[in-house]
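Researcher: Next sequence.
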Amino acid sequence: MSAARRFPLQLIGAFFALYVIWGSTYLVIRIGIESWPPLMMAGVRFLVAGILMYGFMRWRGAPAPTPVQWRSAAMIGFLLLACGNGGVTLAEHSGVASGVAALAVATVPLFTLLFGYFWGARNTRLEWAGIVLGLIGIGMLNLGSNLQASPLGAAMILFAAAAWAFGSVWSRHLPLPAGPMASAAEMLCAGVMLLLGSLLSGERMTQLPTAAGWGALLYLVFFGSIIAFSAYMYLLKNVRPAAATSYAYVNPAVAVMLGIAFAGETIGVEECAAMAVIISAVVLIGLPQWRKQKTD
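Model: Next structure:
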């Protein structure tokens, strides 16, 4: 029996969280960094979310992670959250538009296929075509005025996508805690790492956050972290990686629309063309995976 038949409501809810909630977090991050230093905000976000989820899971009777599981959670938390989400936050702080950031992160499925080679995966011709097309799209995206105005932001956002993809693939081969406890442990570890990075980089609060800044942090803690990240970890364990990363189809469109509507962002012709190319590449990459699923 397929996972979709056994857990229809969980799967529908998990995909909704990835597609819609995660798509909105790019705009919320932009709002938040107007009041918070970027690494500090990301660190507080994940530390608070991790503490809340860890306490809830222990109250529910879930066993505490073993030392080996803590080590695995620290490695995945570093890649997915400290490098992945932290990189996105720094990129937006350096001036990258939230919609463009989401579009760059849409390259995660490309990196996922490439990193799959470390564990013996072999790509089809269609998948290789998608990778090549995606690389062309990345080049087009970097020709746009948004990333050209922030070379450091461009580098950070692509590094974040690569780190997230590597961590997503590696997580399937590590002894992580069961269920949501894995998310809790990863967020706890990443929160400490990000706050340490904030301290070492000299970040300081110069004034109290605004109401919008506090609201952005709360949204990122409860919706962007506890709900959406847990949904992503759930999907990584219950569906193929290509399906779990299919949020890359939808997040850019959600982020672009929200950025234009609420933050006055503008997306140039180059970015629009790059969006079409990158999303086409992700579709090409996903086709063989969906075909395999239908024949299983």
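Model: The two ends are 11 Å apart (CA to CA). The first helix runs from residue 3 to 6.
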